[in-house]
Amino acid sequence: MFVDRARLLPHSRILAPRLIGAVLVSDVGGHEVAVRLTEVEAYEGTDDPASHAFRGPTPRTAVMFGPPGHLYCYFTYGMHWCANVVCGPDGAASAVLLRAGTIVRGVEHAFARRPAARHERDLARGPARLATCLALGRDTDGADLCDPSAPVRLESLPSRRRPGVASGPRVGISVAIERPWRYWSAGDPTVSSYKAGGRTRRRADPAD
DNA sequence: AGGACGATTAACT
DNA sequence: GTTAATCGTCCTC
Predict the structure, then answer these.
(1) Nucleotide minimizing C1' to CA distance for residue A75
(2) Which of A34, A24, A27 is nearest to A157 (CA)?
(3) pTM of the model
(4) pLDDT tier for residue A60 given thresholds of 50, 70 and 90
């Protein structure tokens, strides 16, 4: 069972709410781990200042500008990987960041990859945590999620937006914070509390 | 060539 | 509530 590529059109803002409840499965490393998504964010292309694609294609963001159905993985804060589902037509950057989910198969492997997690609900609560559970990273950047024999696949995608999907501002960004392009399963314990973005390190103060 | 900063997390007080 | 960890990417000389 797999998801047809055409279902990932036309762009991230349509796809993102429908990804709530979708199941992504990873066989990376020979262990099967599957996650049911509870929180995602839409990122558009050159018209979305919060998107990695805002300034046009670069080697890092090439996958975002490619055909739908591929995984866009990026490295951040010097230590974490996060993963997106590319969903726009070829040539138009559009992707959905996978922010949180519930592990539905392979919980024991997820705990092995996330030794800091003490409770099951913390395994994939947060984008870098989710990526760690499924072993998503450099090796899976560009993976074809619509290929039934690929190491990472979209196993199911609800045909319609489910009831109980809420939306609001995206987490951790410092521009375009007014766009309510985060979608989550209302009341789910794996969903992030909102946190505005901004500098995590003080800019040099001229008075020092 | 140099530097600022980040779609974050874990470990603190 | 705060802060350190840590390095690839991209912008600005």
Answers:
(1) C8
(2) A24
(3) 0.95
(4) very high
